[in-house]
Amino acid sequence: MAKRKVRRQARRLLGEDPVALVWCEVHRRIPRPPEEVHRAAGKGRLKPGHHWLLYVGAVLFFFVVVPMMLIDRLGGRLDRAQAPPRRQRQGQGPTPGGGHDRDPGREAANGVFDGDWSLTAGQLLLRWYGRSPNPKRLVLLTRDRVCLAASPRRRLSPTRAGDFRIVAEFPAREVSVEGEAGQPRGFATFRLCFSDGSWLEVGRLGEPEDADHFLHTIND
User: Along the 220 residues of the chain, how does pLDDT read in single tens digits?
Assistant: First the structure.
């Protein structure tokens, strides 16, 4: 369960105890909006920020792991070059690609939202990482509101974070939260469905007990 520090901060921000709360993320890559739409929204980031340790790991990968892989591959090619040639089986040839061409229209929203950048869900996504580079958001339900909170830090411990703040708030009449109870832990998702017909799907729900309680609450 979320630690006392998280619940105390939630109570302070909301002015009341939340009915349910859960940490979550946009669990797929945000699709790239049209350039003019992105520009009008301030050209905010569409990807989460990364901790400096990730960049250190990337440097080590390119300067240590990649050269080792290249050396190993080069050694394999030299071994094959020295081996006697094998006869190709009759009828054997390069395997053609069996995949179908993807339909850009079907992938436009990437399963993240309804696809209309001008509606509430699209506008929320355009500013998602601009409000915080951290991918995690705390969704808070009250009797008459749905709020999203985020920490300004790039890294946080969801169970102990106490510096998060409200970054979006919607009256209950403007949004409904939809998700099935009893979803497999680690794969559970839910949707924020807005009154203008747009929707946003989130997943990677943190803290299994909070996730179970949250999904049960929205199904009552």
Answer: 667 888 999 999 999 999 999 999 999 999 999 999 999 999 888 888 654 444 344 445 555 666 676 676 766 555 555 655 544 444 444 444 444 444 443 444 788 999 999 999 999 999 999 888 888 999 999 999 999 999 887 665 655 567 889 999 999 999 999 999 999 988 999 999 999 999 999 999 988 999 999 999 999 8
Are the C-beta atoms of 39 and 33 separated by less than 8 Å? no
Residue 154 buriedness (CB in 10 A; 0-12 / 13-18 / 19+):
middle
**Residue given tokens 């630690």 in the structure block:** 3
Contact 122, 198 (CB under 8 A): yes
- pTM for this prediction: 0.72
* Contact by Cβ (8 Å): 19, 215: no
Closest by CA to 7, choosing from 162, 150, 212, 206, is 162
